[in-house]
């Protein structure tokens, strides 16, 4: 790479956005760090990040299918309220229906970190209505949602901050 005059992308500091709600009982860690699915729509991982812009901070939520490693849903907002993650989940459900690959009720796991948005009653109701099993990783352990952390890291490195540390 040096001979060609190119360098790899460098990642910057990480800012913590996961704030667990200690008053809420968390779901189990169903994938148990095994992010390999046998078919589409068996396990989705979800998380969100912040992006600094000239005028404000924007939060971007993603839902990734662990089988295809494809972003199946996303949402952006200036607030990190539960609506942000609900919109990303709704887009994922809509996208899979549109692609004629709807999830089979009772066979899909939605895995996320322990942030208050993902342990909220509103998200639990939403998942329950679609017959999707909620799964929560442990607090402060990126390996429990490693696939999503990697996808967000690539999003920031390649699209948000290309060429910057």
UniProtKB/TrEMBL annotation:
This is Transposase. One of its GO terms (molecular function) is nucleic acid binding. One of its GO terms (biological process) is DNA integration. Residues 36-165 form the Integrase catalytic domain. It comes from Streptomyces microflavus DSM 40593. It comes from the Bacteria. Pfam families: rve (PF00665). PROSITE patterns: INTEGRASE. InterPro entries: Integrase_cat-core, RNaseH-like_sf, RNaseH_sf, Transposase_IS3/IS150/IS904.
């Amino acid at each position: 790479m040096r001979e060609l005059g190119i360098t790899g992308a460098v990642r910057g500091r990480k800012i913590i956005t996961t704030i667990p709600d200690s008053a809420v009982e968390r779901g189990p860690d169903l994938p148990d760090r095994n992010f390999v699915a046998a078919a589409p729509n068996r396990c989705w991982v979800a998380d969100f990040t912040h992006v600094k812009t000239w005028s404000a901070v924007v939060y971007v939520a993603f839902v990734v299918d662990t089988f295809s490693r494809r972003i199946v849903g996303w949402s952006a907002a200036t607030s990190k309220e539960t609506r942000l993650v609900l919109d990303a989940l709704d887009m994922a459900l809509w996208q899979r229906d549109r692609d004629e690959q709807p999830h089979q009720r009772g066979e899909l796991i939605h895995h996320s970190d322990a942030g208050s948005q993902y342990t909220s009653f509103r998200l639990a109701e939403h998942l329950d209505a679609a017959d999707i099993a909620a799964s929560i990783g442990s607090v402060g352990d990126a390996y429990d949602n490693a696939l999503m952390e990697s996808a967000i890291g690539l999003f920031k490195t390649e699209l948000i901050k290309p060429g910057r540390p």
